[in-house]
Amino acid sequence: MTAAGVRLVAGFAFGFAALASPAFADEGPGEGEPAAGNAAEPVAALAAPGPAPSPPVNPVPAAASPPPPEEVEPVVEVEAEPVSEPTVEPKASRSTLKRRVLYAARGATVAGWRSSDGWGAYGFNKSTRKPADSGGTLAWCLDHGLAPPSDVPTWSVSARSSSIPRAALNGGGSISGMQLARAGYVVSKWGDGLTSGGGTADQETAAAIMLAVYDVLGTRWPSGGFSVASLTTASFGGWSGYDTGRVLSEAKRMVAEAVANAAPGLPTLTSEWVKAPGKVGEPFSWRVRLRNGAGGGMRDFAVTVKATVDVAGGVRWTSPLTGVTDSNGHLTVTGVMAKKAKVTLSTELTVPEGSATVAEDPRFAANSKSTSQRLILADPEELSTSSSGAPGEPDPSPPPPPPPPDPGLTTSVSPKVVSGGDTVTETVTLTDGEPDPAGLTVDLYGPYTTKPTLADCDQAQWVGSWRKSEPATKPGQDQ
Q1: What is the mean pLDDT of residues 433-437?
Q2: Are 372 and 148 in contact, with CB atoms under 8 Å apart?
Q3: Same domain, yes or no, for 82 and 144?
Q4: How many domains does the structure of the chain reveal?
Q5: Segments forming the whole domain that contains residue 420
Q6: Same domain, 223 and 297
Q7: Under 8 Å between Cβ of 265 and 293
Q8: Is residue 60 part of a domain?
Q9: Helices 200-216 and 244-261 meet at what angle, rounded to 10?
Q10: Is 214 within a domain?
Q11: What is the distance between the alpha carbons of residues 360 and 196, in angstroms, rounded to a whole number?
Q12: Which of 343, 349, 333, 331 is nearest to 385 (CA)?
């Protein structure tokens, strides 16, 4: 790190030691830091030495000077400024703070913000539940501008699908379950197949994932909410050797697909015979559907259908057995029965779950930028479905029946106007309900001299209650 990137303290000896500390001597500004404008604080000027005092008549031997205080190496660096972390054990090594393991453009900027260790992913060891320099799985930062991940404590790892606190540096408030589902979608779909040893294309993809995650989480940037839609290739600085046009287009594609497909909740994969196999010469069609946790179709997922036919040449296919799901999550394959045969069709998909798998340092605090940022890990779901059919056989796995309609309730009274002593009859009709609605209760209110509204049915006007096939009860009576 240059002198301009370190906070100096008054006092020449200690200030010099901070500049010479090997922990920071070669570091650039941390990720989430403005690319310019972080000038170091000025050092207080040293006064010219005065004349030496006259020695005393009977000099007393001077006591031995106490040893200088042992220098404690800074353990957290935030925005190019050493920040001590009181919860970290003294003498914690700089090596406990992890750098990214798959990244593009170390020290480069995006929209005026610099990442000293590149744009991409950290490593995380799921076995030890700690960030790692090598091995493990890849993880992308959830919080922008906070300290690098530390491997001093054991982290917690859990799937999060409901709101969590947003770091104060990122705007405060909360991150919604939908935002987490979208971030988990991006990391799981495009990050699951990457490794720390990837080449330039993988490094660019890792950088695109980082930008897309910041977008769908609603992360704040110097100019406000961060959005990849507002970026151009001119927004990238110091990306020599990398295709910033590809990084940006991939990030935009990731955001668009996550917004279209992701929702909190588990995804489902189902299948059905649109037209089951029939007689020889007749066509058939089979359809799969991929849905998110809210029941919406998930588009643009590659599907490969495996077909098993118990008689060679029994089917003539009239569509490919591969394709991508449409906007409703559907993919359909078709064929014609060439011989009397049994047909089994199946497929398997790896799909992002409707949540974000979050790793969190136990010392994390939303209002502190000196503790480790949280990380998002890829955690996709394996789904499969299959159907079998043969001429004359019903589909053994038909789609589930539709849910029953909501019950309806209507009432009528006769006569509508009565005098004292007259009898009134109230008829209650329940449609599309259970055959024996034991919980159905009718309350009678009155009398009224004008046509009442629902607000007029208060306790003072209550006459009694009736339950199906039971006599009326008055206040204070058991039903």
Answers
A1: 56
A2: yes
A3: yes
A4: 3
A5: 408-467
A6: no
A7: yes
A8: no
A9: 50
A10: yes
A11: 21
A12: 349
